[in-house]
Amino acid sequence: MRITERMNFSDRITRVPHPFAQDHADEALARYPDVTGDVAGLIAGAAGCSPYLRQLMQSEADWLPSALEAPEEEMANLMNGLRAHEGDPGAALRRAKRRAALLIGLADLGGVWPLAQVTQALSDLADLACDIALRHAIAQELRRGKLPGMTEADLDTCGGMTVLAMGKMGAGELNYSSDIDLICLYDETRFDGDDQHEARAAFVRATRRMAQMLSENTAEGYVFRTDLRLRPDPGVTPVCMSMAAAEAYYESLGRTWERAAYIKARPSAGDLEAGAQFLKTLTPFVWRRHLDFAAIEDAHNMRLRIRAHKGLGADLGGPLDLMGHNMKLGRGGIREIEFFTQTRQLIAGGRDPSLRMRGTLEGLKGLAEKEWVPAKVAEDLADHYRFHREVEHRLQMLRDQQTHDLPTTDEEFGRLAAFMGRDAEGLKDELLSRLCDVDGVIERFFKPEGGAGEDAAREAEQGTWLDPKVIARWPGYPALRSDRAVQIFRRLRPDILTRLSRTSHPEEALLAFDGFLAGLPAGVQVFSLFESNPQLIELLVDIVGTAPALAAYLSRNAAVFDAVIAGDFFAPWPGLAALRADIAARLAREADYEARLIALRSWRREWHFRIGVHHLRGLVDAATSARHYADLAEAVLGALWPEVVAQFAAKHGPPPGRGAAVMGMGSLGTRALNAASDLDLIVIYDADGAEGSDGRRPLAVQPYYARLTQAMISGLTAQMTGGRLYEVDMRLRPSGNQGPVAVSLAAFRSYQQNEAWGWEHLALTRARAVAGEADLGAEIQAFRADLIAEVAARPNAESRLAQEVIDMRARIAAAKPPEGPLDPKLGPGRLQDVQLIAQAAVLVSGRAVTGARAGVSAGIAAGRALGWWDEAGASALSRAAAICRDVQMTARLLGDGPLDPETLGAGARAFVLREAGCTDIADLVATLSSRAEAAAQVIDAALGRAGTGEAKP
């Protein structure tokens, strides 16, 4: 039956080459007399343009017609035939390569297979060829007894040797006539120390035999040209090296181009599991935890070195000349698109594993979806990449040469155009347009525009505000000790100084920036980040002009800038549930407990910074940022507690009984934290009849939960990479510092009902469960509600509690006087005083609510019956609490202590006044004082009446 009657291959043809040499086309058709229609046109065009395909069609005339009936099935038959072959596979591999090259070439030329299917078919064949050649070589070493301790059974894993496919082969993007880049490694742990030398020698011999079998060009052709030079330090290392040696090299000496190369790395032959494990160990080397914008300059320098090495230096500027232009390495070429994609992947892939795809087209798509690349840019580059690769394949199909150069004569350009079914001038126009488009995109990426104009920069440099003594200090800072950092900063400096000159008080902003620069331990990564993202310079200038303390924090934690450009930094607050999901996904990517603690610190640091920036820029007010800080702390505790429990249980067994609940007290309990808050916590457990744990090292119940709590405290407070999570205060637990750090539910109930002081009942009004066993937490909260109702019902509860509050106010006043007129916390009618009376109102009302606002409302309800305050009094308390809260939230964001009107910078002053709604510092002092005085009068009157039992008139 004729091929055309199969209605398969021929119906899928979408294009055909034009014969460049008609006599060669006629000769080919004479060999295939039964071929008609588009298939005949395809064979004629291929043979009339490509001497290589013409030769293959001559040698495979008996095989090709049936192969074209079902090309996918025939490729599978070729692969299965190789797998089933016995004996020396050399001749079978070369025959399979010839036939695959012909079949894939015709499917490509006819548009029957898209580019991705073409390159994947070539890559699959290369994988199988490597595996067959390697196994044949390893089998010889096993038969000779040259792999100590190994037997024929170890041939399945090639004795622990793996072949990593690199470059286009690793990505499944192999060229039509490509070299294959391989790195050969072996697992040294499978051999005793004394056998290491002999094993390595055997693997080296096997590697050389494999490479020779694949590369040797005989009368039957060759399989694949093999390049082993991507291995570590190829000038001095053997062609197959141990995984441990390779890992040590990358950890200490690995360069950016090697990181980029490993984006596409894939185990392709031998022990695939060992290869996959090796790649997993290299994850920290390839994918940095921070956003690595320094990779941009490394990639740019690599581009320049490649061009210089290949003699393409003249191609850097001026009009682009198509004649002899290198489609891979030249301007606007394939490598440019790959560099663009891989560099962006290196920048972001450490934070986002979804960007760790091997393929260039997949990488562009993923980067666009995550908004690292504009969608239109990604689409255009992907389209150009497909076109470039098809041109590359046509160049290589012509004579089976590993070439990327466009023709140097009009005649050969005519041949290429005919091979692509095009006219020469139209092809040239499209090539030039596409190459220039890619060149424009890539150059903008590696040399981004922006920054200060020359005139503005000169004006900034010469401004009278610029203190030369400050500038003179900069070269001695750690961040500017490397030549590379100095070069990048020199480019940034005009833009930075211009932006500083435009602040309301540039002298103050310069000093704050100087503090930021002085605290940076290193500069390359941060400066590279700024150069690629000028909006970060604007944000930094905002911060140094407003909150120097936050700028100093940034210098120690510059990695938080990653969050600004890695996601929806300025989007609305996602809420506690979204935070929990986000941190769960982040921790799931970490391999061990310590790594999770470090990741948790990094995550918390970024969100904490985000809350501060949103507050600083007026995106949220003080009350809202207080809730956000509390959400963040609760998410951290909710993520940390199960990690601590799992780590502790691995040694001592699971928690006995019902487990434990972590109760948040104080500001955490009322969801009102600030930027510098510590965490007031109580841990309550319920052994539920259990006497101890069941583990490798069992513990009795009390020491189990005490040590588990200490482990949690350590997890929060330990100084690790990324600093601490939070400082922790456990003094609100029963019996304070004298009591155990974890208390049983029964003991907690008994203590609160029979022994607790009044201040402890007041503190309990602000408690809520924040982590641990949810059922137990709910039970504790129910007990809390019952206890508050019980305390309110006790005889003389109001007068006794009033006296307790009076005594506490006196002790606080004696021990902690206010720190200046802008102290929002201490003093009559200020924040602590209002919170204290609000807690008392909750206890007296018997209503289990939390927070100052709820307590003030409870006081009104109580007052209707007992005489505390009316609506006017409640308003006075609320107004005092609000301004005190606003001032405290801004003060904690700006520094460690209360605000000092004498030293407050202009930017910080404007921030505080905006939040407090005041016109100047004098107005703020007067407003804070008058509202506190009004609140103090309400509190004094309420306590006086409550203490005497006097009813409200």
UniProtKB/TrEMBL annotation:
Keyword Kinase attributed: no
Database matches in InterPro entries: GlnE, GlnE_rpt_dom, NT_sf, PII_UdlTrfase/GS_AdlTrfase
Any one of the GO CC terms: cytosol
GO biological process: regulation of glutamine family amino acid metabolic process
Transmembrane in keyword set: no
GO function term, MF aspect, one: ATP binding
Domain named PII-uridylyltransferase/Glutamine-synthetase adenylyltransferase: residues: 301-431
UniProt keywords, alphabetically: ATP-binding, Ligase, Magnesium, Multifunctional enzyme, Nucleotide-binding, Nucleotidyltransferase, Transferase
Domain Glutamate-ammonia ligase adenylyltransferase repeated: 49-280, 538-780
Pfam families for this protein: GlnD_UR_UTase, GlnE
PANTHER family per the UniProt record, alphabetical: BIFUNCTIONAL GLUTAMINE SYNTHETASE ADENYLYLTRANSFERASE_ADENYLYL-REMOVING ENZYME (PTHR30621:SF0), GLUTAMINE SYNTHETASE ADENYLYLTRANSFERASE (PTHR30621)
Name of the protein: Glutamate-ammonia-ligase adenylyltransferase
Organism of this sequence: Roseovarius nanhaiticus
Higher taxonomy: Bacteria, Pseudomonadati, Pseudomonadota, Alphaproteobacteria, Rhodobacterales
